[in-house]
Amino acid sequence: MKSPARLLLILLFTTAFLLPICALAQPSEDETRNDSMQDVLEWLEVGYKHLMANDLDASIKAYTNAVHLAPDYAASYYNRGNVYTVKGDYGKAIDDFSAAIRLKPNYTEAYYNRGLAYYNYRGDEFYSRNKYDLAVADYLTVISVKPDFAEAYYNCGLAFDKRAKHLHAIEAYSRAIAIKPDYVAAYNSLGTSYAMQGHFNKAIEEISKAITLDPKLTEAYINRGRVYDRKNQYTKAMDDYNAALKVNPRLTDAYVNRGLTYLHLKNMDAMCADYKQACELGQCSELTWAKDNGYCN
C-alpha cells in the first residue's frame, strides 16, 4: 500500500510573524525644521493615512511623491516598502528596503522588514534560491543591534528551518522564548523543529506549552497530532485533530491528517469521509489518491 507522497512528510505548521513594522517613520528634529522637507513629510503623512485606511495604491502613490521630492530620504523608501510588503509585492519591497539601507546603513527596521520580504519572496531565481539565507543575514544584523528583539530570533528560526538547519532554528526559538516567555508561536515552532530532528517527546512538550498558552491555536493541535501519529499514538492524534476541528470545523488540514490516522487504523470508511470533506473545502489530492488506489468510491 503506497501512501500519497505528501502524507509521508511531517510538514508541520509554523506561525510566522509576517507583519512588517508599519509605523510611520518619524523625521528628526532637524528635518522638521527644514522647510524644503515639509512637502515630503506631508506626503509621508498622507501615505500613512491611506495605509491605515487600507487604500494601498493611494498610499504607494503618496510615498512615491515623497521619493521624487527627496530621492535621498531613506524614510520614504522604507514606508513605501512596508506598503509593498502588505500588498504582497515582495520584490518591490526588497528594492525599497535596500534603497533605505543604502541611504541609512544603520536602519534596523529596514533590515528586519527586508528579511520578512526575502522570506516570502517568489520570483527571481537568485532571490528564490538564496532568500532564506538572505533573510537570516538581515535578522542577524538586527539582532546585533537589538539583542532583545524576540521576533527577530523567531523569524530567524523560521528561515533556518526552511534551510533544514533545525539545530540553529531550535537555538533561535529558544532565544526568542527566553526574551518573551509567553511567545506562543515560538513554542509551536520550537516543537516542530524538535520533531524534524526526531525528538518527538520534546516536540510534544513544547507544542503543549503553546496550546496551554493559546487553547484555540489550531495549528498547534495539528502539529502535536502529527507527532503523536509518528509515535503510533493514534488515539491521542485523533483527539488533537478533533480539538482543532472543534475550534474550526472547516479546517482542511485537520480532515486530511485525521484521514491519514484513519488510514493507519485501517478504517477506510472514516478515511474516505474525511478526505471527501477536505475535498469539499478545496483539498482534493488525498481523495484522488484514495480513489486511484481503490479505497474510496
Question: Could you characterize the architecture of this molecule?
Answer:
The chain has 297 residues and is an all-alpha fold. Among the domains are: 21-117, Serine Threonine Protein Phosphatase 5, Tetratricopeptide repeat; 219-297, Serine Threonine Protein Phosphatase 5, Tetratricopeptide repeat. Helix content is 71%, strand content 0%. It contains 16 helices and no strands. Helix 6 runs antiparallel to helix 7 (125-145), helix 10 packs parallel to helix 12 and helix 15 crosses helix 16.
Question: Layout of helices and strands, plus pairs?
Answer:
Elements: H1 29-33, H2 38-52, H3 56-69, H4 74-87, H5 90-103, H6 108-120, H7 125-145, H8 150-162, H9 166-179, H10 184-196, H11 200-213, H12 218-230, H13 234-247, H14 252-264, H15 268-280, H16 285-292
Keywords:
single chain; 297 residues; mainly alpha; Serine Threonine Protein Phosphatase 5, Tetratricopeptide repeat; 71% helix; elongated; disordered N terminus
